[in-house]
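Box 4.2: Ligand-aware structure prediction
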Amino acid sequence: MTCEKSKQLFSKAKNLLPGGVSSPVRAISPYPFYTKSASGSKITDVDGNTYIDYCMGYGPLLLGHNHPAIKEAITKQLDNGWLYGTPTELEVKLAQRICNNVISVNMVRLVSTGTEATMGAIRAARGYTGKNKIIKIEGGFHGAHDAVLVKAGSGATTLGAPDSLGIPPEFTKQTLQVPYNDIDAMVDAIHGYVGEVAAVIMEPVMGNIGPILPMEGYLEEVRAVTRENDIVLIFDEVITGFRLAMGGAQEYYNVIPDMTTMGKVLGGGLNIGVIGGKKEIMENISPAGKVYQAGTFNGHPLSMACALATLDVLEKEKVHEKVNLAGDGLRAMLRDSINDLGLDYYISGVGSMFKMFFGDIPANYQEALKCDKEGYFEFFHRMLKSGVFLPPSQYETNFLSTTHTDEDIAATVEAYEKNLRP
Ligand SMILES: *Cc1c(COP(=O)(O)O)cnc(C)c1O
């Protein structure tokens, strides 16, 4: 297995792109592989090595790489041009279908990324309530904008400190954070700032530190306390939306927020973001209301076409039933493997999301931090050598797609066993 071309590209890239990459997680030490092509469950690098992919674009590719129906949607749309700066029928159709599927949503603003979606949702919640503070969950990731880049690890009701240079501390002082799966901390934060909290924003399943699942009753309790205090509950379903079920985690767990942000899976691999919610809140967004939101690429025709094609496939092929079952099977096999090997590791996940924690079962971010991160990273490299591309971090979820075959899964379990063996 040679990686010479990738190695050379990365040394060149380091002088041209900060850290050599266009987004931080891709800067895999000592150098990442550079992709030439991808199809189905497989990704092939510029040196000709092929891997079974569980990164899947970090979430969007539930239907796998290079899906024929998505490709056809792109090609068809290309014949008509791809950017107009005017409304299209595509966006009306897509809005209707999102509203039909996602219980909390009866109006949407279609944007280009998950980052824009959460930024817009928070602004809409603040505009609607006339309040400024928000509560987020420690370790929760909602994209790379000022309000949500807040250092995880401070105490339950501590005012947040920025997690990045370049963010005025005054901004993040508006962001409170609490540990996941701890309803008492949430209630304390809300009671500590009565009448000041506009929104709680959370991933219903913590996808960016695991996945870590909600404990029995937790989401229901968050729903109840936010309702009692007139706080807008925003579920950030950029990962779980259209992945766990057609109606996302809110359908899967039957807990209905006031607003929902989506992205990733819906776009089928093209960029998309959705701000969705009750009409009463959504009608505050410009030009209907006074919460400003705009974008040159909002409702991009290619993304709309891909999203509609994605929904067609998801509905016609009953994708969630199948891929969630495959997830159950894979998790069971991995659990057997760690039992056989006598390892104290934990297999987490739900539906098509899974992860092996190199440590105990975590309930929140602080507990997840106790895992053997270095051990995981070494394991990542061994898996890559065995032809399996896992996300390079202990804290990025692994994703199954509809294109992972039984043979892929068997080869993957075998690689896990081989590379876990001391
Ligand atoms: C990926 C992600 C985002 C950001 O989406 P982008 O399209 O990368 O801007 C927001 N929230 C969650 C939960 C995500 O996983």
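In the box above, the bound molecule is pyridoxal-5'-phosphate. Residues 152-158 have pLDDT under 50 and may be disordered.
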